[in-house]
Amino acid sequence: MKQYMSEYEKFVFLNSSGSFTQSENWCKIKNEWKSERIIIRDESGNIIGTMQILIKNIPLMNTVFMYAPRGPVCDCHNLDILSKIIEQAKLLAEKHKAYMLKIDPMISYDDIESINNLKRLGFKYNADIPEDNTIQCQRNYILDIKNKTEDEIFSSFHSKWRYNIRLAVRKGVSCKYYGVEKLDDFCELMQATGKRDGFAIRSKEYFEKFLSAFEENARLYMCYSPDGEAISGALTVRYGNRVSYVYGASSDTQRNLMPNYLMQWNMIKWAIESQCDIYDFMGIPHCDEENHSNYGVYRFKKGFNGEIVKYAGEFDYIFSNVKHTVISFLLHSIGYTKL
């Protein structure tokens, strides 16, 4: 089993379409879900495709919801590989009595061949679903750092962003990475951010699991003002060829010290030191709606001079139309748009 998981992890880690959410470590964080993994090999025994599936029980319905975050991991242009993965997924659906499987692979919105392959295999493509209703953001903001020096990357930032980074340093902002000893400070910032921006927050236990699962490949960055107040924080993960900014929070006070700019620069420097190709700022919802309340997220990330990556989005394979209809109705009736 250990050799099996090591082989699986190596394939996902090295694959260009691999994601930390397809890592075994993600299951350690999502341990309230069950999990299964599919591995497809060629005639020589080499892995050519994988998919990790999270499985969530639906109370009182005698069924489960299956979800493969950023899966499958394979060449989605290859219909044969995709077909073999989906056949295995169907067996797992039968085993667990699943009513549906949702996937959101790392394929581009304009990768028509891959999209058509998934549709050909029976997936419903949710091309027009509102982006607030998807589990993963459909659009991310990434910075290409491959074979670039710190100076080259820093000089590419918008001049105001470079100024704000230097300002934070001059004002005495401290920015370092820590372990679980600073999670209380981070969680307080998350409480303030969630209240300010209107989103539900994770528990301290969840963030502890995040740091524990990814070990040295996860970092908690914290910024403190000269008087010792926690004013900004982020959880970031290094996986494959990228470092990803996964969770962030900031204080309502001392924002004039510009800690968020300095924190991003420190995380980008970690990605450079790790010889990664990409620093992933992650989601930029509503980046084309200047009047939307979330547009500021995109405006902030845009100043680091990266680029927008738009993924295809979500695909659903329905195993039971009746249960899917009933569960969807019940979820919408109580205000849930996603599991």
What this model shows, in words?
The two termini are 30 Å apart. The chain has 11 helices and 14 strands. Strands 1, 2, 3, 4, 5, 6 and 14 form a 7-stranded mixed beta sheet that branches. Strands 8-9-10-11-12-7-13 form a 7-stranded mixed beta sheet, with helices on both faces. The chain folds into 2 domains: 2-137 and 312-333, 3-Layer(aba) Sandwich (Aminopeptidase); 140-310, Aminopeptidase. Helix content is 37%, strand content 26%. The chain has 339 residues and is α+β, with helices and mostly antiparallel strands. A hairpin with a 2-residue loop joins strand 10 (230-239) and strand 11 (242-250). The mean pLDDT is 95. Helix 6 (159-170) packs across helix 9 (259-273).
Largest sheet: 7 strands, mixed
**From N to C, what is the helix and strand string?**
HHEEEEHEHEEHHEHHEEEHEHEEH
Q: Tell me, what is the CATH class of the largest domain?
A: Alpha Beta
**Rg:** 21 Å
Number of separate helices: 11
Q: Kindly give the count of domains.
A: 2
Q: What would you call the shape? A: globular
SS-based class: alpha+beta
CATH homology superfamily of the largest domain: Gcn5-related N-acetyltransferase (GNAT)
Reported CATH architecture of the largest domain: 3-Layer(aba) Sandwich
Number of strands: 14
Helix percent reads 25-40%
Uncertain segments are: none
Indicate the proportion of strand residues.
Answer: 25-35%
First-to-last CA distance: 30 Å
CATH topology of the largest domain: Aminopeptidase
Mean pLDDT: 95
